[in-house]
Amino acid sequence: MILRNTFILVYLLVTVAIFSFLDASISLWLSFFSNAVILSFFTYYHIFIEKFYSPFLSTYIVFNYLFFLVAPMSQVTTMTSMDIPIFSNNFPFEESLFIKTNFLISIFHITFFLFYVGAKSLIRQKNKKTSDVFKKSSLSILYLLVLLCILIILMNWSFILDELVRPNWLVSNYSVGDLLIRKKVLFLFPLSGVVLGLSFLKANKLNRQRFFLFLFAILLFLVFLILLKNPLTEKRNALGPIYLLLIFLFYPKFMNSNVKTTFLLFFSMIVAFPAIQFLTHVDYGFADLLSNPSLIFRKNDLNEGYMSLNYDAFINIGVVIEHVSFDGLSYGYQLLSALLFFVPRSIWSGKPDSSGLIVGNHVKDHYDFHFTNLANPYIAEGFLNFGIVGVIVMAIVLALVIVYFLTWLKSSDLLKKSVAFYFAMHLIFLLRGDFTNGYSYFIGTLFGLYIIPKLIIKLYCFVFKQKVWVSRKK
C-alpha cells in the first residue's frame, strides 16, 4: 500500500506540474485536461482495483502519459514563445488541430478501456502438464539450441561485425527483409534458450551435475544474447523489451505487480530520462546552478527536449488528420503494407507505403521537411484508413489482443509467458508507430522466441518418442 500511495503521489505531483506550466487557451487546456482525467482513472483502476497482473496496461498508461500529455503540452508552451510556431518536422502549430487530436485520443481511450475490462472477464486459465519425454529430452534440446546459436553466429559473423562498427545514423547495406530475418528472428534464439533453460530447471529434479550443465547452457545463451543484442548492434526500442524480460525472468519480484511495473516505467521514461537529457544539455555551469537553483526550472530549457522528433507522436496525428482532409481515407488499403509485410516490393510493385512514410511525404511535399520516414501512432493508423470508425476499431483490436496475451501471461508455459511480457514492453514501440514496423518486428520476434523453438522441441520429442517406442518394442 505504501508503494501504491507513493506512486499516486508522484503521478499527481508531475501532473499538477505539467498543467501549471501549460500556456494555452482554455479550450486547448480543457482538451488536455479531459484526457488527463481519463488516463488518471485508468491509472487508479490499474493500481488499486485491477486484480490481474497486467504489464500491458502499465505500458499503455505510461506511453499515453508521456507522448500524449507531457510532450505535446510542453510543445504547446514552447510554441507560444516562437515568432513562427512550427514543430521539428516543419508542421505548423494549429490549435484546432490539437483539440481534434485530443478528441480522437479520448475516443480511443474510452473504447479501449471498455473492451479491455469486458473481455478480461472471459479469461480462463488452463495449465498443461509437462510430458515425460519433454523432461527427459530437456538437456539435449538445450544443447541442440546452443549448437544452433553457434551456427547462426558463425554464418552471420560478417553481418555482426558490420553492425558493431556501423554508426546508428548510417543506413545498413542489407535489405529490410534481410534485417528482419536476422535481427528479429535468428538473433532471438539465444533469448529463447535462456527462457527454455529456466523452464527446464523448474520442470526437472536435478542432481548437481545436471544442474551445472543446465546453468552452463543458460550462461552460454546469455553470452550469445549480449553479443547479438547490445547498444552497438541494436536500437534502444528493441533492447528495452529484451532486457526488461531478462529482469522479469531472473528477478520476477522486481516487476511482479501492476504498481511496480508502472512505477518503474513511469520513473524511467517520464522522470529519469528527461532529467538526464536536461542535465546533459543544460546551458549553465555548476556554479550558476548552485547560486541560482531556479535556473533548473526554466520552462524553455525543460521543454526543449520535447521538441525533437523523438516526441512527434501527438503532432503526427495532426499531420494524418490534415493528410486525410487533402487526399481522403485509405479504406484499409494502406494497412496491407503491415499485414502483408512479408511480401517484397519486387513481387508486389503496387505495395502501399507504410503510414510513417506517408506522414513524412506529407510534411516534405507541403512543408519542405527533409526527412520522410517518421513515426505514426497506432491511433492515427485507424484514422488514416477509416476515420473515426477506424480509431474505434483499432482500440477494440488492441484491447482484444492484450486480453489474449493476458492468457499467455497466466500460462504455466514460460515461453508463452515470456512472449506475452515481451509484447507488453514492445507496446511502447507499437503504439508510437508506425504500425508496419511495430507489427512486423513483433511477428519476427514471435517466430524467433516462440514458434521456431516450439517446432524444434516438438520435432525432437517426436523423434525421441519414436526411438523409445521402437526400443521398447524390440
UniProtKB/TrEMBL annotation:
Q: Where are the transmembrane segments?
A: 7-22, 28-45, 57-77, 97-119, 140-160, 180-201, 213-232, 238-255, 262-280, 383-407, 419-435, 441-464
- Source organism superkingdom: Bacteria
Q: What is this protein called?
A: Oligosaccharide repeat unit polymerase
Species = Nonlabens xylanidelens
- List the InterPro entries: O-ag_pol_Wzy
One Pfam family this chain carries? O-ag_pol_Wzy
State the UniProt keywords alphabetically.
Membrane, Transmembrane, Transmembrane helix
Which residue windows are coiled coil?
A: none
